[in-house]
Design a protein that fits this description.
- By secondary structure, the protein is of the alpha/beta class.
- The chain has a single domain (6-125), classed as Rossmann fold (3-Layer(aba) Sandwich), CATH 3.40.50.
- It is 47% helix and 19% strand.
- The chain has a 5-stranded parallel sheet with strand order 2-1-3-4-5, sandwiched between helices.
- It is globular.
- The model has no long low-confidence stretch (mean pLDDT 92).
Length: 131
């Protein structure tokens, strides 16, 4: 995966963020970390990301509201793929994530192989749509 692919990681738990950044960067991605949903929205409005990994439960603004704001905004990021990250593995939460505008769902603890495959698939699908 070329390093030109940029991921916005919205994750408030420092240990989780550091682990995910290490795995993603080792796989060639450039990663920007937002520590809460409000920061994720700000980065999303000014950044050019290929994918957003959005923790659902964060301080200030949660991942569901951050996703709604990104989808409602005028920025080019309103169409970027957003994957939810959450330990809440139930159909009701999955439905809430999709209703908020997220495109997919990964449960914690994150399986790193699944994470990398999901990132690759999301970026590949986005590249085909824009081509």
């Amino acid at each position: 995966m070329p390093s030109s692919h940029r991921i916005l990681l919205a994750e408030d738990t420092d240990v989780n963020a550091r682990l995910l950044v290490a795995v993603l960067e080792k796989s060639g991605y450039e990663v920007t970390v937002a520590s809460d949903g409000e920061q994720a929205v700000k980065f999303g409005e000014i950044g050019d990301f290929d994918l957003i990994l959005m923790d659902v439960n964060m301080p200030v603004v949660d991942g569901l509201e951050a996703t709604r704001r990104l989808r409602a905004g005028a920025s080019p990021m309103r169409a970027v793929t957003i994957l939810a990250l959450t330990a809440d593995d139930n159909p009701a939460m999955q439905r809430r994530c999709i209703e908020a505008g997220m495109d997919g769902y990964l449960t914690k603890p994150i399986n790193m192989e699944t994470l990398l495959k999901s990132c690759e698939r999301a970026i590949s699908n986005a590249s085909r749509r824009s081509a």
